Predict the 3D structure of the following.
Amino acid sequence: MQLKYGTNPHQRYASVEPLAGDHSPLEVVNGTPSLINYLDALNAWQLVREARAALGVTAAASFKHVSPAGAAVAVPLDESLQRLYEVEGRELSPGALAYVRARGADPKSSFGDFVALSDVVDRETAEFLKTVVSDGIVAPGYEPAALDILKAKKNGAFIVMTADPDFEPPTRETREVYGLRLTQDRNAHAVTTNDLSTLRTGALTDEAKRDLVLGLVTLKYTQSNSVGYVRGGQMTGIGAGQQSRVDCTKLAGQKSDFWHLGLHPKVLRLAFKDGMKKQDRINWRVRYIEGDLTREEQQAFAAVLDQPFEPLTDEEKRDFLKTVTDVSLVSDGFIPFRDNIDHAAKHGVKFIAEPGGSSRDADIVGACTEYGITLVQTNLRLFHH
């Protein structure tokens, strides 16, 4: 099958073909995908399929540039999250609920995302997707009404793919780079709660087990190095593709803090004028939380609100973030230095899952003990490139 283009538009030739005869894991139902669309769909589908199998609930992912901007499972929303995600008063199906959470993890990064859902897409999920800027979706199937809605999105250019839930890939995978063919065993380890059996400190709650498994599955399909923060059945911050693990920890922690600040009463009280696009409201909330509005931005912000706004001060941010707790952290490789733990503790982390095996494991265990953090060592590295 010919694709729209390769990684970049000037790479004009691009194609895809199944390895096993005519049996393909994905079928294009609508639109013309590019190479990146296919890579996003393949990674995102594997993530939600594995999360669904491990946790037994509907899972969703929001992918950008072959890494998840967010991932989540269908956990009910409290009133604050309903307001933040702008779904107050709506009955959300499990699929819609999972994707609302996944996209809500980092709505700025999810702009123009590729969506994956573990279950058949229903009308409620399609109706929500109709309201956001997105490039495509992959799922095991679609209700007829949902498919009609999605086919009409982007003037008919929205990419819709169907995934075969029973497809099993070859045990080995191959890629060609600069004239060389590289082959390896596929990472076929299915993450489950069994990977959380080696407790080094503390104890795990059922919620923490769910969040750690979700986090590990998510990082399995995230560009390495990667660290993720999880709370309430959804990723709240992902630090991907960094050369230094502590930089992953800091980046993901900053994103997680930003997500939590979206629940600050001042943010939830922002009242926008009618007629504003959803993404514009999201962007203004982001700038409001960031706080460094220029004079021109302050004037523009005031013009789109129904009432004057009060700045969210640095002190108010610090005080609010001090109340955050029960956050889980996952790492795709072992944590080499305790500075990762020191930074994690600043972001409300109470549970950590990492492979272990560092020469400084004793330092990591000691730091977790100091902060009252539960530490699980999985003996499982999850690098992804």
Notes: The longest strand covers residues 67-73.
